[in-house]
Amino acid sequence: MLVYLARRVLTMLLTLLVISALVFVIIQLPPGDYLTSYIAQLEAQGEIVARERIEFLRQQYGLDRPMIEQYAVWVFGLVQGDLGYSFEYSRPVSEVVGDRLLLSLVLNFSTVLFIYIVAFPIGVYSATHQYSWGDHGLTFLGFLGLATPNFLLALIMMYLANVWFGTSIGTLMAEEFIDQPWSVDKAMSVLAHLWIPVIVIGTSGTAGMIRRLRANLLDELQKQYVVTGRAKGLPPGRLLVRYPLRMALNPFVADIGNLLPQVVSGSVIVSAVMSLQTTGPMLLSALQSQDMYLAGSFLMFLAVLTVVGMFLSDVLLAVLDPRIRMHGKAG
Amino acid sequence: MSVHHYPFGAMAGDYARATLGLGLVGLPLAFGETAPPVTALLAAASVLFVIYALITVRRHVTRLEITDAGIRTLSPGTRPGVLAWQDIKRLTLCHYSTRRDRSGGWLQLRLKGGGGSLCIDSRLEDFDRIAARASAAARCNGLNLDHATAHNLQRLGLEPAADHDGVRW
Fold first, then answer.
1. Radius of gyration of the CA atoms of chain A, in A
2. How many domains does chain B have?
3. Other CB atoms closer than 10 Å to residue A132's CB: what's the count?
4. Which DSSP letter does residue A275 get?
5. Size of interface A-B (CB pairs under 8 A)
6. With contact defined as beta carbons under 8 Å apart, do A42 and A53 qualify?
7. Dihedral sign, CA of B143, B147, B148, B152?
8. Which one, of A304, A323, A300, lies nearest residue A312 by Cα?
9. β-pairing, B70-74 with B63-66?
10. Can you tell me the mean pLDDT for A37-62?
11. pLDDT digits (tens, 9 = 90+) for B20-62
12. What is the CATH number of the domain that holds B131?
């Protein structure tokens, strides 16, 4: 297992290295750089910027250096905990992002937790009570969740939360706590506001997960070993938990890796709609203005989250189910 | 009696991976001023790669003697370990792969009993024969095998007979 862990960690590190190169190249792909956009913006407002000043700024920000050199400086900075400098805010990226990375992490982790806590019992119930009224009702809700766009659900939930529960709309905490140091009251305020975005972002993932667990469990329940177990007089609950449920859990666990990117990308749009203080809205703005170090840091954070999710899912799967796959031939 | 070892060709990948891993996490630690959380992560990864390198070296220098009585492991600097076939109390055969579709990868055979344990992987010469001999011993000893082990033995062409509560040889 230790050998597996070491090999998997190495794969993760190499993946992150490749992602960092791709992120950097993609951010640089649009013509021009941050200064070009900035100058175009100033000229649109009727201001004239001296050529010497432009060259000075380009030199100051290191934009005149070759791309590979800029990339190397950025990556070594990242490894040392230096996220770079935001051109747009004229401050280090770490100061600009403030609590946003932490809040994004809390939001995404809570959403994944919500998806698993809700999807697991409903998926098991739907499979064990196939074609019952409960199964039909939950299936209908599941399809509704899959079909409703997140931003629409966000608008509906914001309205309902305000009218029914009196929760302030459009933030992840009460206004008096924004940009304030962390305290128990601030954490409680975040928790009180968290449930709306968690439900909004998590609904489609929950619906998908319910469908997958139901389908997997139904497949297992129809296999001969379950019939044999029933014929031998095993109690239904024990039979379900010990055999088919364990087998049906594999795809459920493997989905952690697929779920995180889905949750993260879903949360960007929802955060923009709900004005949440997460990385989403700031990432969009940084990409528009080509603020490359700010955008790059956010994208790397999302990449780390995804790659770590995949790593956890793979390790859990290796522990739970160390079987040779049909197409796999061990070397 | 037959003697088996891990050929260098089979271990070269592990040496390369351990070196690359140590380089990737060790260089920033050695030459840069890293932030405390990053330092902790890099240090943990470094420890993991050092252990990986040590396991690789140990495997490479180990020789296994298979006799009718059992398995004897010979590593330089350590006392020979002996595991008699009749003392085997537990057998697990796991498959690991770092690919998303779980293709390729390697098998790990773990034997326990007689106060000792032994772990070998499928890159060992004649692994299939050793696995067959170990499974025959498990059958003689009447061991219960978990589902994954039974499935993997089946894939190697060593058919276990199943009952509903685990698989009994």
1. 24
2. 2
3. 12
4. T
5. 109
6. no
7. positive
8. A304
9. antiparallel
10. 73
11. 999 988 888 887 777 888 888 889 999 999 999 999 998 888 8
12. 2.30.29
| Residue labelled with tokens 């709900």 | A274
Inspect the interface and report whether the beta carbons of A330 and B122 lie closer than 8 Å: yes
Kindly state the tokens that stand for B17: 């991976």
Q: Where are the beta strands (DSSP E) in A46-146?
A: 85-86, 91-92
> B21, A228: Cβ pair inside 8 Å?
no
Q: Say if B1 falls within a structural domain.
A: no
When pLDDT is averaged across residues A152-170 and rounded to a whole number, the result is: 79
Domain finish residue from B43, B61, B79: B61
**Boundary (domain end) residue, out of B61, B86, B101:** B61
User: B87 and B27 in one domain?
Assistant: no
- Domain A100-320: give its CATH code: 1.10.3720.10
Q: Residue B54: which domain range?
A: 7-61
Q: Among A177-181, A228-232, B26-30, whose mean pLDDT is lowest?
A: A177-181
End-to-end CA gap in chain A:
16
Torsion of CA A85, A89, A91, A92, to 10 degrees: -40
How close does chain B come to A76, measured CA to CA in Å?
8
Nearest to B48 among A6, A14, A229 (CB): A6
Instruction: Write out pLDDT tens, residues B58-86.
Output: 888 888 888 888 888 888 777 777 888 88
Give the pTM. Answer: 0.76
The reply to whether B68 and B56 lie within a common domain is: no
A133 CA to chain B: closest CA distance, Å? 33
- The answer to whether residues B43 and B114 belong to one domain is no
Q: How many CB atoms lie within 10 A of CB B11?
A: 16
The pair phi, psi for residue B117, each rounded to 5°, is -145, 160
